[in-house]
Amino acid sequence: METKRKREFYMTWLFLAGFCILAAIVSWLCLLSRMRLPDNVGRELTQQETAEVIGRNSPLTGYVRLSANADFPRGQRISKITIHHMAGDLTLEALGSTFSDRDRRASANYAIDSQGQVALYVEESNRAWTSSSRENDDMAVTIEVANDETGGEWHVSDEAYEALIALCVDICERNAIPELVFTGDVEGNLTLHKMFRSDTECPGPYLESKMPEIAAAVNEKLRELSMPRQ
Question: What's this model's pTM, rounded to 2 decimal places?
C-alpha cells in the first residue's frame, strides 16, 4: 500500500512538473512571437514612418494602421489578388480597430471605403490573415471593399469600385503581375474569399459579378502602362 501511495505521489508531481514545463514553453513561444513583430506594428506611426510605409507599398494609400494579425514576412512571392467585402459601410479607422484586436485573428493588406479612400493594414511583404487559406494569402494581396448596401447584392459605390481597379493596377504593376485572370475558381490569380470558405458569400453577388469586368479593366490599363511612350 505504501509503495502504491509513493508511486501515485511521484506520478502527480511528474504530471504537475510536465504541465508547468508545457506552460512555460507556450509562454516563451508567445513572447518570442511578440518579439518578432516589426516595431511599427500595433501603434500610431509618425508622419515620417507613415510616409516610409506607404513608400514600400501602394502610393494610393491614405491611411495606415498596421495590424499584428499577420505573418512576417509572407512565405511566397506575390502573384494573386483576392477581393473581399466588409459586409458593411465601415470607415477605414473602424476596420483598422477591428484588425488591431488580436483575439479576432483577422486582417487584410488593404481596404477601400465608400468614398474610394485606401487604407493599409498589413504591408505587402507580409501575409495578412484574410481568406481562410494560408496558401492563398501567402501569394495574394488581399483587399476589403466597403458596401453601400447591406445585404442583397452587397453593392459597392462607384468610387470604391474605381479605386479597387486603380489599386489592382498598382499592385500588379509593382509586383510584376502581367495580367489578372479570373477563372471562377482557385486556378486564376484573381480570387474571392468564398472560393476558400463554403459558409460565406464574400465578396457578395455584386462584386462577384464584376470580376471579369475588373480583370479586363485592370489588364487594359496594364497594357497601356507597358506601351512605350512616344
Answer: 0.84
